[in-house]
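User: Run a structure prediction on this.
Assistant: Running it now.
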Amino acid sequence: MPIVTVQQGPRDTELKRDLVKRITDAFVDAYRIPAETVQVWIHEVPADSWGAAGRLTADK
């Protein structure tokens, strides 16, 4: 059973719903497995809890 973890900043529920569907479809197509076996975990990190290039994302 594939488990896909997506780490990202907060997004709208509708966007996450679409992302989960597309990721699931990609695994179904590539591995020829039932959609029920694919799990997608979305871990949302607030902009003040991550950084890039030496700056908090919230400061951009």
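The longest strand covers residues 3-8.
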